[in-house]
Amino acid sequence: MAVTTLTTEQREKILKPLLSSGWEMVENRDAIIKKYSFKDFNEAFGFMTRVALKADKADHHPEWFNVYNRVEVTLSTHDCQGLSTNDIELATFCDEAAK
Amino acid sequence: MAVTTLTTEQREKILKPLLSSGWEMVENRDAIIKKYSFKDFNEAFGFMTRVALKADKADHHPEWFNVYNRVEVTLSTHDCQGLSTNDIELATFCDEAAK
User: Fold this and answer.
1) Looking at the DSSP assignment, which residues form a beta bridge with residue A70?
2) Is the predicted ipTM greater than 0.90, yes or no?
3) What is the per-residue DSSP string for chain B?
4) Out of A48, A64, A67, whose CB is closest to B61?
């Protein structure tokens, strides 16, 4: 089944909680971004490695930027040009991995 | 010894070759950037992992952006606010790792 963007109901139910926990909508784009800060590079890249394994397994990849202890993760779904449930799942995993 | 920015002579001898091999000066900043393209995310993140280990060992870290098979690496030295020999070394390693 083709990936589709989140419905209005899904945005209310599963996107909104993320937007209350540090994720933000990207300007002019149906995408979300979160800026994580870690103790050091070791922790930051450890986080990235966990997310990378998860992402590649799900064949759904982040756009991300890292410098030293900071990681900025942007999520959106290429196939539907917007947010899908795949992004919600990966965002939730990112939050878990960053704990 | 404090890290210092590259001298004019060093820029000629060790920076110039990098600028002939895909590295570019960042606009308005004493930093270099290179955009690598890999087969897929597995290769791209494999490259990042090798660079991450090297960088953390040398305590000299990249600024980098990744989406799927693409990795953009920016190098500059925080302590001297510009390019140092640490950047030349890490740039050279990146090129090796990307082969």
Assistant:
1) A37, A67
2) yes
3) ----PPPHHHIIIIIHHHHTTT-EEPTTSS-EEEEEE-SSHHHHHHHHHHHHHHHHHHT---EEEEETTEEEEEE-BGGGTB--HHHHHHHHHHHHHT-
4) A67
Which DSSP state fits A6? P
Shortest Cα distance, chain B CAs vs residue A43, angstroms: 11
Domains in chain A (CATH in brackets) are: 8-97 (3.30.1360.20)
The tokens of B57 are what? Answer: 């060992």
Measure in Å the smallest separation between the Cα of B20 and chain A Cα atoms.
25
Which amino acid type is present at position B45? F
Beta carbons of A65 and B67 less than 8 Å apart: no
B10-29 exposure pattern, b = at least 16 Cβ within 10 A, e = fewer: beeebbeebeeeebeeeeee
Residues of chain A contacting B70 with CB distance shorter than 8 Å: none
The model's pLDDT over B38-70, given as tens digits with 9 standing for 90+, comes to: 999 999 999 999 999 999 999 999 999 999 999
CA distance A20 to B72: 31
Q: B56, A41: Cβ pair inside 8 Å?
A: yes
